[in-house]
Amino acid sequence: MVNTTPTRNLALDLVRVTEAAALSAGRFMGRGDKNAADAAAVNGMRLMLNSIDMDGVVVIGEGEKDEAPMLYNGERLGTGNGPLLDIAVDPIDGTRPLAYGLWNSISTVALSPRGTMFNPGPFVYMDKIAVGPEAKGCIDIEAPVADNLKKIAKAKGTKVDMLTVVILDRPRHEKLINEVRSTGARIRLIPDGDVSGALMTAMEDTSIDVLMGIGGTPEGVLAACGLRCMGGEIVGKLFARNPRELEVAKEMGVDFNKPLSMDDLIKSDKVFFAATGITTGDLLDGVSYFKDGARTDSLVMRSLTGTVRRIISTHKMSKLERISAIPY
User: Fold this and answer.
1) How many helices (H) and strands (E) does the chain have?
2) pLDDT in tens for each of the 328 residues of the chain?
3) Directed axis angle between helix 174-183 and helix 145-156, to 10°?
4) 133 phi and psi angles, rounded to 5 deg
5) Torsion angle of alpha carbons 247, 253, 257, 263, nearest 10°?
């Protein structure tokens, strides 16, 4: 007999986490202090994660524990009661845009059952391709750019020259950019924020069809969590920044030539994901402030049901400050 009893949607708890991080960090927009902005976001995120009934362990965090106020890999969060979960966090995806008053910074977090998130260890870069539901199953990280774009265009019922490819604006992508241009496809270059870039491929109103290029491995796992909820797909392959990383990988038994499928990056169909805009971008509006208040724009997703919610929240600062342990 099928169990029809509704189960708890932890994504609705997660949106309070990303809202707290965005509200805390948003005050630092344009001040040029990346460390202060990041610390504020981390403090807000940690406070709210510890209020959730779960036994959570950070798999995708901000590195190993040190003196910085980061959410470090291996940190345990939550009340200790409830389900055993993996946690992926990025308190600010786009710290530089936030610090310098630019577009497209978000706060994001994901949960999945314990042992289901890919742990990249010390290897922080990955070559990746992400698409929305229509092109799921059509992408191959080892195939030429032109072949991937032809298959994506066919799956979407269009021509290659009607596709838009989002790519991080980095010198390392010069060859990729030239290859995409040679196919006739359009390109949207973004300065930062490839979690947003990946998620936009699964949203019809963004006009983004595919994300390509080398970006962060942690961001790749977070994007996989979001795309799992939205029905999209991301594939990748670890990218070595230098020969020493290849040596370390060999010692650890990590194969940089092995393609990473969606199931490698996130094994579960029980994923919860939330993101809140900090500065306005193509995906979400940023925090907007007014007298004694602020407004936030968030995405809240659950893979089990495929539900994607857009939540616009208004926050009363004077009330928050009376009860909160962190400054908003």
Assistant:
1) 10, 13
2) 445 455 789 999 999 999 999 999 999 999 999 999 999 999 999 999 999 999 999 999 986 554 556 799 999 999 999 999 999 999 999 999 999 999 999 999 999 999 999 999 899 999 999 999 999 999 999 999 999 999 999 999 999 999 999 999 999 999 999 999 999 999 999 999 899 999 999 998 889 999 999 999 999 999 999 999 999 999 999 999 999 999 999 999 999 999 999 999 999 999 999 999 999 999 999 999 999 899 999 999 999 999 999 999 999 988 988 888 888 8
3) 50
4) -60, -35
5) -140
